Amino acid sequence: MFHLISDGALIGSWSPAIGDPSVMGWLTVLMYFYAAHRCFRLARGRAVKLVDREATVWWLFTLALAALGINKQLDLQTALTEIGRILAHEQGWYEERRAVQAGFIGVVGLLGVVSGAGLILLTKRLPAATRAAMAGGVSLVAFIAVRAASFHHVDRLIGRRLFGMKFNWVIEIGSISIILAATYFRALGPARQTVPVRR
Length: 199
Description:
Structural class: mainly alpha
């Protein structure tokens, strides 16, 4: 199925390597792992008493953030993009790829809205800090999914700069920062929480 198109390439033009060796790239990786560490500390329930189902939320964040930190430099979404491009060529729908990409982004947007609504219902009894972390997580996953679609106009938009910072840095680091800040607010403990522990 897959054809090498350059020496050393594994899937299309992608090979396992450091995807973003820049200072911002490594800073983002460090933020992923630090946020995962903070979520891990909360998930264990030693620093603060957690309410029903809350430990599961923080365990999921721990695993997801650690995986995304690894993916940040392996750039696995590019491998998925290459798989899609190769399939499009081999199955004869490469010329219609823009419609497929647009449809993908539409589906991601719809899933984001539905997921957001579902999370509001599922986490309405959880502390505000945990709900804020969930919002940051939804934003982060949606951003990564849209980038994986490799839609040219979206790539151009998030590649633009605002006060010297690329939009993709702002979105990705901003989402991680929301999760990270939420871990600190949640660690303040029940005395600062408005939701009582359910019996």
